[in-house]
Specification:
Low-confidence stretches: 1-54, 58-67
Strand content: 35-45%
Mean pLDDT: 87
Structural class: mainly beta
Number of helices: 7
Number of domains: 3
Radius of gyration: 27 Å
Largest sheet: 8 strands, mixed
Number of strands: 45
Shape: globular
C-alpha cells in the first residue's frame, strides 16, 4: 500500500514555471531539480489556502473574487523506467493537474488505446490535501485508488460540494508496453482528480449571460472553466441552452443549434473573433441581444478587449456601430437603472428607527417615520423605496402592510406563514400552506403597485413550484433584479432544511407565475436561518457545517458553489446586509444588532428586527 503523498521521492512531483521562464540548455537539469523542490514547498503552503470544498473562514480585506492574474504553469515528468503500478497511478493522477490543456504527460501513463479513449475534460474530482490518496495493488494486473473527496465539477462546469465523509474508489487495469507498466483500462467517467490547492491555478468561476423572458436585462449564471483556451470555452458554453434552474425564466437569443466554426475562438491583438455556424438573426433587437450576451461573457477573458461576430460568414452588423464591440452600451443594449433604496430600519419594542452605523448613535436614535408595529407582529420586510413595511400577523395566518400611519390587513391566503420579502418590482413574496382546494400551494405574491389608501388590497397570487409540494417555505428572497429567487424550506415538521435557487417565470407584464427547477446551494450546511443576496451571484445565510458542534455563523455562498465561513456569531438568529459581504448585519437572540468589522462583529445597539429595503 502507498499514498500519493509519498510519490514525490519517486519522480512524480511537478515543476512549475511561468510561460516566460525558460532554463538555459546547460542549466536545465539543475533548474528542474530546483523547481521540483520549490513546487513541493509551494504545494505544502497552498494546501491550507483553498476557499472551496470544506468552507474556510474569510479573511478581512480580501474579496471573494479577485483579478484574473496569469496562472502559474505546472509541468509533470513522464513515467520513470521500472515504475510500479502504484507509481503509474500516482503519476497519472498528478499529471492530470497539468495546465497546458493537452495532457500529453498524463497520456504517457496510459496504453495507446487507453490514451485515445480517455476524456481528460470529463468530470473533475477535487480530493483533499489533508488526507493522502491511497493506491492498493490487486492481483494480477489491477490497482485500486481511494481518496477523500471534497467536491466535483461536472462537464457543465457546475461545482457540487461533497458530503463531509465522501470517498471515491476507482479501479485501474494494467498492461505491459515494452516491458513497462501502463494503464490499459480506466472507468469511462474518469476525468481528472486534482487537489483543492490546484483548483485556483487550473480553473476559475466565470459568468454566462442570458436574457430575462419578460424584459431586456441580462441574467447571470456562474460556472467553472479551465483557464486555458478560455475564450473558446466561454463562447462554446454561451451558445448552449440555459441551465435547468433558469428554464423558462430566461432565454438565449443566440439561435439554438449554433456552434463555433472550427470549434474555437481566435484572439489577435486583444480582439476575439467569434465565427458561428447557425441561423443569422435578422431583427435588430435580437442582434443587439446576441452582442450583449457574447461581449459580456467574453470580456471576462483578460486577453480580450473587444469582440467581432460573424454568422454563416456574414458579419453581424448593426447600423452606426463600429467594430469591434467593447461594451454592451455600444450596441444599444439597455442598462438597468440603479434604484436608490430606502434606509434600513431597526425595531426596538414597537418603535422603528433608522439603523445606525455604530453603537454610538444608539444614545440618540433617529425615528424612521414609520408607524409603530407591535412586537406581536414579526418578520418585518421593507419595500424598495422604504415607504412601507410588511409583517406576519400575530397568529401566523396572514400578513399586514403598514403604509404611512395605517395598517392594511392583506386578504387571508394560508397558514404557517413564512418571512415576507419585497422584490424590486413591487411584489411581496411570502410562503405558507394553502387552504382547502389550494392546500398544495406553498408560495404566493402580492402586487403592491398603487396607493393602498385608495385601492383594494391585492389578492394573493400563487407561484407554482411542484418541488415545494409538502414542504414549508420559511423564506423566499428574490434576487436584486427579481429574475431568480432563493427559497429556504423545510419538511412539514421543520427538519431537512435546505436552500434552493430557481428562475422566476413571469408573465409579459412581470407578474410571477412559477419557478424553474431548483439548484441546491450549501448542501452541507445544517439548520440555515435567514437569506440575503449580497450581489447578483453571492448570497449569505446563518448556519452550521454538517457534523460540526458549533453555533451558527454566517456563510457566504456563490451560485458557482463556493462557500466561505465568517467569524462565529454567538446567539445569531437572523441575517441581512446593507450592501454586500462587508456590510452583513446579524441579529442575536438577546436583542443585539451586530455589524461586520473585518473578522469581528461590532455592536450597532439594541434591536429585535432589522429590515433592509429591496434592492
Amino acid at each position: 500500500m502507498s499514498s500519493l503523498a509519498r510519490q514525490a521521492s519517486s519522480g512524480q512531483a511537478p515543476s512549475r514555471q511561468t510561460p516566460s521562464q525558460q532554463a538555459a540548455p546547460g542549466r536545465r537539469r539543475r533548474a528542474r531539480v530546483a523547481l521540483v523542490i520549490l513546487l513541493t514547498v509551494v504545494t505544502t503552503v497552498l494546501a491550507g489556502c483553498s476557499s472551496l470544498g470544506r468552507a474556510r473562514e474569510a479573511e478581512p480585506g480580501l474579496e471573494v473574487r479577485g483579478g484574473d492574474s496569469e496562472p502559474v504553469r505546472a509541468i509533470y515528468p513522464p513515467p520513470v523506467d521500472g515504475a510500479t503500478q502504484q507509481q503509474i497511478v500516482a503519476g497519472f493522477v498528478r499529471a492530470g493537474a497539468a495546465s497546458d490543456g493537452n495532457y500529453e504527460t498524463a497520456r504517457s501513463f496510459l496504453t495507446p488505446e487507453a490514451a485515445k479513449s480517455w476524456v481528460a475534460e470529463g468530470e473533475i474530482v477535487l480530493y483533499s490535501t489533508t488526507t493522502p490518496l491511497v493506491v492498493t495493488p490487486q492481483a494480477p494486473n489491477a490497482a485500486v485508488l481511494v481518496g477523500a473527496v471534497e467536491g466535483t465539477i461536472g462537464t457543465d462546469g457546475r461545482y457540487i460540494n461533497a458530503a463531509p465523509t465522501a470517498r471515491r474508489r476507482v479501479i485501474f487495469e494494467f498492461a505491459r508496453i515494452k516491458g513497462e507498466w501502463r494503464i490499459s483500462n480506466l472507468p469511462k467517467e474518469f476525468g481528472r482528480w486534482i487537489t483543492t490547492s490546484d483548483l485556483g491555478r487550473l480553473l476559475k468561476p466565470y459568468t454566462l449571460h442570458y436574457l430575462a423572458t419578460d424584459r431586456r436585462t441580462l441574467v447571470p449564471d456562474r460556472r467553472w472553466f479551465p483557464r486555458d483556451h478560455l475564450a473558446t470555452r466561454l463562447a462554446r458554453a454561451q451558445l448552449a441552452d440555459p441551465p435547468a434552474y433558469l428554464g423558462n425564466a430566461v432565454r438565449n437569443d443566440i439561435p439554438r443549434g449554433s456552434r463555433l466554426t472550427a470549434d474555437s475562438v481566435s484572439v489577435n491583438d486583444g480582439i476575439a473573433r467569434v465565427e458561428i455556424i447557425g441561423r443569422v438573426p435578422t431583427a435588430r433587437v435580437q442582434r443587439e441581444n446576441v452582442w450583449a450576451q457574447l461581449v459580456s461573457t467574453l470580456l471576462q477573458d483578460p486577453s480580450i478587449q473587444g469582440v467581432t461576430i460573424r454568422v454563416q460568414d456574414v458579419t453581424l452588423e448593426l447600423p452606426d456601430v463600429d467594430l469591434p464591440v467593447r461594451t454592451i452600451e455600444q450596441v444599444g443594449f439597455p442598462v438597468t437603472p440603479t434604484q436608490v433604496p430606502g434606509r434600513p430600519v431597526v425595531r426596538r419594542g414597537a418603535s422603528l428607527y433608522f439603523l445606525p452605523n455604530s453603537s454610538a448613535v444608539d444614545r440618540d436614535p433617529t425615528k424612521s417615520g414609520h408607524p409603530d408595529i407591535q412586537p406581536t407582529f414579526h418578520s418585518l420586510a421593507l419595500s424598495g423605496d422604504g415607504s412601507e413595511l410588511t409583517a406576519v400577523d400575530p397568529d401566523g395566518s396572514g400578513i399586514s402592510r403598514f403604509h404611512d400611519k395605517t395598517q392594511y390587513e392583506m386578504p387571508f391566503f394560508g397558514t404557517a406563514v413564512g418571512h415576507p420579502t419585497y422584490d424590486t418590482r413591487g411584489y411581496i413574496w411570502v410562503g405558507g400552506i394553502g387552504l382547502d382546494e389550494e392546500s398544495d400551494l406553498r408560495l404566493w405574491t402580492f402586487n403592491t403597485a398603487g396607493d393602498p389608501a385608495t385601492q383594494r388590497q391585492p389578492t394573493a397570487k400563487p407561484v407554482n413550484a411542484a418541488w415545494l409540494t409538502k414542504r414549508r417555505v420559511i423564506e423566499a428572497k428574490p434576487s436584486p433584479q427579481g429574475d431568480r429567487v432563493l427559497v429556504l424550506h423545510t419538511a412539514a415538521n421543520g427538519t431537512d432544511a435546505r436552500i434552493d435557487v430557481a428562475g422566476v417565470i413571469r408573465t409579459p407584464a412581470g407578474e410571477p407565475q412559477g419557478l424553474s427547477a431548483p439548484l441546491r446551494l450549501g448542501s452541507n450546511l445544517v439548520e440555515p436561518a435567514g437569506l440575503v443576496w449580497l450581489s447578483d451571484v453571492t448570497v449569505a445565510t446563518l448556519a452550521r457545517r454538517g457534523g460540526a458542534r458549533e453555533q451558527r455563523r454566517p456563510y457566504v455562498i456563490s451560485i458557482d458553489g463556493q462557500e466561505q465561513s465568517l467569524t462565529e456569531v454567538p446567539k445569531g438568529v437572523a441575517i441581512t446586509s446593507t450592501g454586500g459581504e462587508r456590510d452583513i448585519v446579524v441579529t442575536t437572540t438577546d436583542g443585539t444588532v451586530l455589524g461586520r468589522a473585518g473578522q469581528q462583529w461590532l455592536s450597532l445597539g439594541r434591536g429585535t428586527d432589522v429590515a433592509i429595503a429591496a434592492r
